[in-house]
Amino acid sequence: DKKDDIRCLKLWLKYIDILGDASTQLPLFEHLSSSEHFQSHALFYEAWASLLESMRRHKEAELIYKKGLQRKAEPLARLERHHKEFEQRVMAGIVLESKNPIADTTRAAQTKRKALANLGDKAG
After folding, report:
1. Residue 41 forms beta bridges with which residues?
2. Fewer CB in 10 Å around end: N or C, the chain?
3. Which of 5, 1, 20 is nearest to 112 (CA)?
4. How does pLDDT run across 57-85, given as a tens digit for each residue?
C-alpha cells in the first residue's frame, strides 16, 4: 500500500525539502496526515516535528511527536530518542532564547537537516 510505503515517504520528504519554504511545506504534512499517509513511520513524525520546531512552534511539534508515539511509529526507539532530544532542546532554549535567539534558530535548522538526512537511513 502506497499510503505506508517508506520509499514513497522518502520521496515525499525530498519533495517537501525542495520546496524550502515552511509556509508551503507545512500544509503538505497536514494533508498527508489527514489522508492517513505514512502513519506507521517514525520518520514522518520526526520530519514534521522538526519543521515545526524550526518555525518555533514547539507546542505543535510536541503534539506531533506524541501522535507518532501513540501510534507506535517505527522504529519506535528512534522516535522516542528524537522526542527526548527535542524536549531537551526546548528546555535549553527557554534559558538560551533571551541570550542568543539566532543560535536557537540555527540549532532548530540543524535538527531539521538531521531529520531529513535520515531519509537514507535503512531503518526507515
Report:
1. 74
2. N
3. 20
4. 999 999 999 999 999 999 999 999 999 99
Contact 45, 64 (CB under 8 A): yes
Strands in 20-88 per DSSP E = none
Does the reported pTM lie above 0.85? no
AA letter at 1? D
Buried b (16+ CB within 10 A) or exposed e, 5-33: ebeebbebbeebbeeeeeeebbebbeebb
Residues 6+ apart with CB under 8 A from 90: 58, 62
Residue written as grid cell 527557554: 94
